[in-house]
Amino acid sequence: MAKRYVSLWFRHLKTDWLTLRQPQLSNKALVLSTPSHGKMLITATNFLAEKEGIHSGIAVADARAIFPSIEVMDDNPSLPEKLLGKLAEWCIRFSPFVAIDPSADGLIIDASGCSHLWGGDEPYINEIIKRLKDRGYEVRGAMADTIGLACALARFGKEKLIIEPGQNLEAILPLPTASLRVDPEIIVRLHKLGLWQTRDFIKMPRSALRRRFGKDILEKLDEALGFKEEIIKPIQPIQPYQERLPCLEPIVTATGIEIALTRLLESLCTRLQKEGKGIRKASFKSYRVDGKIEEIKIETNRASWHVNHLFKLFEINLSTIEPDLGIELFILEAPIVEDVSSIQETMWNRSSGLENIGLAELLDRLYGKIGSKNIYRYHPDEHYWPERSIKKVFSLAEEPASPWKIDRPRPIQLLSNPEPVEVTAPIPDYPPMLFRYKGKLHKVMKADGPERIEQEWWLSKGEHRDYYSVEDEEGNRYWLFRSGHYSGNKSYQWFLHGFFA
Q: Which domain holds residue 10?
């Protein structure tokens, strides 16, 4: 596919933005200024100021002498980058690859394979310019095979601003030397020699040009003519697994949104299935006509390319998308994908425990409704202290670092905080005969212990515990412990810590 680039130049970016925020400035000659070497210099102007002969680089005092009623405001050097970043995000509706032009107040759009969706190059670029002008920005745009030529045409082109493929040389000849984006000192030296247009020196020997003007001018020429590729950084990294669906007419109904999501899922999942991969994280973005972006995200426990399952996950929050005046572009991205591993099952036996796909899909749907942090399982942790010997795990795929300890019985339910109980024992180190828990007296019929568990001194200080497994007259089994050595002066030395099945 042949490369095609669009360059957008915002001639009065900062003053346009200020006018949008303060409409009363729309009929005034406006300039922005910044201090430099003891005087205020103009750094930006609007159209009305330029009409009065005021341009960037002159002193504010001189501008007031030319036009006394000029409106002067302080400049913000960091403003262009922020504005261009927002405008670049908005332009993603026309192409997934949009970058900030590092050399001037503009944007660069990689339009390769995009313009046919709008009916051709001319309708495509006209639509972009029209939409930006409707937003209040004065903008010029041009399209060419290379970034350098597109940027030159946007700023200095006078007639044809859409160059057909393969016509780079013819298009660059009449452009002024300043269009090459080289150092201003080089432009001054070219002008001193009477070289005002690119055609005046483009056929000179390269060795002579390098010797007189440096290698930068040759590099810029090569980039503009397509002999050297120019690398730019998109405002948003392009996801390798992304599907786009532009809309000929804005979508305003829930049914239309569902149809768009289904088509994108079918396209992306078909591609993933061929590559043996599945979605772990995905986002569905809806670009509205008013410039706002509606987005919903999903996560899966296991990589999946099942369209119906993934649609159900999105469907939980699909109603939160507000189409307002309409949605003109849908994008489905999968920033995280993984290989889909086939699980070997025993013949006639569909059960595969935690590997069961049905279980993973059920949890995915529950996560979307109640949150992923509200469903978990337990793994053994490498600690002796009972409260620290288990940990919560939120993933089906995570394997335990150590096996469960089965040399001693452990309760099915372990209380997060041991609760004090009143215990009667014939002698201090003897198993309890009676204990009272929440006002109810339990008679111990069987008891096993003690099992001493020492405090993990490297983590915290405290007494050791002597644990007993006891059974009352009703057959209920409990896990009790005495904290530290027996002392008649202490109250509530005994605690209930868990319940057996």
A: 5-156
